[in-house]
Amino acid sequence: MVLLDGKIASAAIKEALKQEVSQFTAGGKRAPHLAAILVGNNGASETYVAAKVKSCAEAGFRSTLVRLNDTVTENELLASIHELNGDASVDGILVQLPLPKHINEQKIIEAVDPCKDVDGFHPVNAGKLVQGLPGFIPATPYGIMLLLEHYNIVTTGKTAVVIGRSNIVGRPMSILLSSNRPYGNCTVTLCHSHTKDLEKICVQADIIIAALGKPEFLKASMVKEGAVIVDVGITRVPDSNSKTGYRIKGDVAFNEVSLKASAITPVPGGVGPMTIAGLLRNTMESYRLQVTGC
Prior knowledge:
The chain has 294 residues and is an alpha/beta fold. The protein has 2 domains: 87 residues, 3-Layer(aba) Sandwich (Rossmann fold); 134 residues, 3-Layer(aba) Sandwich (Rossmann fold), CATH 3.40.50.720. 40% of the residues lie in helices and 16% in strands. It has a 6-stranded parallel β-sheet with strand order 1-11-8-7-5-6. A 3-stranded parallel β-sheet has the order 3-2-4, sandwiched between helices. A hairpin with a 7-residue loop joins strand 9 and strand 10. It is globular. The chain starts with a strand and ends with a helix.
């Protein structure tokens, strides 16, 4: 069984990006610049943004963190986004989700310039993905594709099941796996809460992407011998014996499923680091387009 270690794969990607940045800066060009907007002080969001800022530094990127109170108005948040849209020194913009309930998330997503939408959430980039046109791929699915590439997981001609149909992971993941590209060319079934006979569908799959947000949902009985398992889930489960008061669990019952899988991601340390790697790769692509013209 191969452990699809996202820490190892993401470190390799960051090192490659760092070398590329060094070449640009040695030639007198500026470093790529990622700007993140964080609204409020949600613990999980704080952790995610801190990891992104740290990864930027490791890859030689510049980063800016815009902190706003959770009482910020929608118009004030939009003004911050518009300011970053117009800043020629900023290559990528991300707004950390979730946002306070009084703010329309979709309106905020659509306010980000599609050319700086390195999270890949804007409808323009979503449409380009569907049509196979160049654009920014949502960071988590992109990171998963990079992980499959790093470990040279054969996907062509394989059957894949994606559990979860969110616009952030499930839908774009199904498109990428079915696309005519390296580490694509799968026959894909997209499953969700209304899917009948889910276990029967999963047990036939060569590759399973679990992205539904239910801890340890995917059991060994749902997996065939030799399947490749990618666990996107990350849920904080209360644990009085932990110093933090919780444990992190994925959507896959790792201990039992790993006994049948040929390859599997851990949680944490699997898809999470690769999401950031995808974000950095998107930012570099935006940088190339804006600074180098290539």
